[in-house]
Amino acid sequence: MAASETVARLWEIVEPLAADAGLELVDIELRHEGRSGRVLRVYLDKVEKQDETEVPGVEELGRVSRELSDILDVYDIVAGSYTLEVSSPGINRPLTKPAHFARCVGQRVRVHTGEMIGGRKKFLGSLHHAAGDGVVVLQDGREVFIPFGLIVKANVEYEWASP
Questions:
Q1: Domains of the chain, CATH where assigned
Q2: Does pLDDT of 162 surpass 70?
Q3: What are phi and psi of 17, to 5 degrees?
Q4: Residue 84: what pLDDT?
């Protein structure tokens, strides 16, 4: 099974596990990393937060990790050896679904596209709008529409306050 098919199958398995724990599946990565071999990373976040700094607890992440590990051991979905990591998405969280973008309107984002838009593939700016079939990023003082279908990778870019 190709890596993209494996990741798609993992989404089908992990989403209900996460939902049962009151968590949202944010992203899944399956990649080779130097001598350490393959790493399967699963990023989970709280569905309902008191504020943006609230993250899933160790108990919640551990529960999903154990359940997922048992399923992966039984059904051998990921061929060969790998390391499983289950964690929160972190401060520069990936944006993988339209709903993720909608929740981050007004925040600074980094977006990489598979095709050129206005002579570039990389955008960094304020997420102005997210709805319908794409997002609008304020890049260098102008609004740029980026269709969801062209987004290869996107994440929040946390802006650190000056001392």
A1: 3-87 (3.30.300.70), 98-156 (2.30.30.180)
A2: no
A3: -60, -45
A4: 94
